[in-house]
């Protein structure tokens, strides 16, 4: 089974909720003793404001390319069997799942640590934007971790699995030495002018610049 | 909502498979942005031998008491909203889930790190035993992490969330200072002689001693 067959990445168009069991069953395998998952869900408040829903947009080919890249990095770092990553586009109501990651491995440390790494990297490097819809307005938000990573890049930062801002759990010692050789695919903001020009009533605050 | 209402612990009798969605939905909440889960599944090989299934036994009241204790420790260490822990008894076939943990929190670091802590502590301190059933025989196994912890206790070890053998991901600095004050409920092997005496054809290799 090739690495590609062992990795399922889906960016789901509007009104296709994430089928968690489908992805858990994708990573389940007889040789594995562990499955770790992470669900990102819409919170009802942000900075003290009542959130009605979040709406996600992505330049899908680039988002998939970036997610593939971080999955490859994860496989270089941990002993993983199967990986599934799904992200919704369109509106996600309060309590709903917008992103889901599942990893499987023989021993649990690999699945658990890789799952944590994958969501950290996804938030920091994958070009998916969200609009926060409040009771009294809405605003496009760039993920703060994306901004941090961009700032780091501006300071000659090399994107890689061990360069994000918080420490990792139990990484294998080897890959730490390789981080200076690695480059993420989406370390800087992707220009999607054609999407912006097609977008009507865009109240974008500078995300698709 | 009391801490007790926010924690669901279930030890499932034989032939009651773990309903993963039930536990994920238990921890899902409007105020949370993150759900982390861990599934422990039966591997098809162990030490090069083909495994047919695992069979679990527990002294249920003590197992529940111990799981409650580690959930309380987790809440003292991370900002968690809801926790669910389920463990099967009886046979679990290859690929099946024997243990499932779900945690939810406002920010993902808490759910992810607590989930990892909970499975580490469950394996190391909760009195649940497994029989590995191979194609050509079967053997009761004490979890190696349980044995390690017992050895540590023999060396005047204080059970607590930061005393297990591998490093934690991003713990808050505070609780590290409290570890010497903490005691797990099940740091040493539980005596369940009455269960042993009721057990027929017991090929136990010294687990219920």
Automatic annotation (TrEMBL), chains A, B:
InterPro entries from the UniProt entry: MoaE_sf, MOCS2B_euk, Mopterin_biosynth_MoaE
GO CC annotations, alphabetized: cytosol; molybdopterin synthase complex
The gene coding this protein: LOC110783351
The keyword Cell inner membrane appears for this protein: no
Record has Transferase as a keyword: yes
Protein name: Molybdopterin synthase catalytic subunit
One function term, GO molecular function aspect: molybdopterin synthase activity
Catalytic activity from the UniProt record: 2 [molybdopterin-synthase sulfur-carrier protein]-C-terminal-Gly-aminoethanethioate + cyclic pyranopterin phosphate + H2O = molybdopterin + 2 [molybdopterin-synthase sulfur-carrier protein]-C-terminal Gly-Gly + 2 H(+)
Complexes and interactors: Heterotetramer; composed of 2 small (MOCS2A) and 2 large (MOCS2B) subunits.
Alphabetical list of CDD domains matching this protein: MoaE
Compartment(s): Cytoplasm
């Amino acid at each position: 089974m090739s690495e590609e067959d062992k990795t399922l990445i889906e960016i789901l168009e509007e009104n296709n909720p994430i089928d968690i069991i489908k992805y858990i069953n994708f990573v389940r395998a007889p040789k594995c003793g562990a499955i770790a998952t992470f669900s990102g869900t819409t919170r009802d408040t942000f900075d003290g404001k009542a959130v009605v829903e979040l709406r996600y947009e992505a330049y899908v080919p680039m988002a998939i390319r970036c997610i593939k890249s971080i999955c490859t990095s994860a496989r270089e770092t941990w002993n993983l069997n199967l990986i599934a990553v799904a992200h919704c586009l369109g509106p996600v109501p309060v309590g709903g799942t917008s992103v889901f990651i599942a990893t499987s491995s023989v021993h649990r440390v690999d699945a658990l640590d890789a799952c944590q790494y994958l969501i950290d990297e996804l938030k920091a490097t994958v070009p998916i934007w969200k609009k926060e819809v409040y009771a009294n307005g809405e605003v496009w938000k760039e993920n703060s971790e994306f901004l941090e990573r961009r700032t780091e890049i501006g300071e000659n930062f090399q994107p890689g699995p061990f360069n994000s801002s918080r420490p990792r759990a139990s990484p294998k010692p080897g890959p730490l030495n390789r981080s200076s050789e690695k480059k993420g695919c989406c370390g800087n903001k992707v220009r999607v002018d054609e999407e912006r020009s097609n977008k009507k009533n865009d109240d974008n605050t500078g995300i698709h610049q």
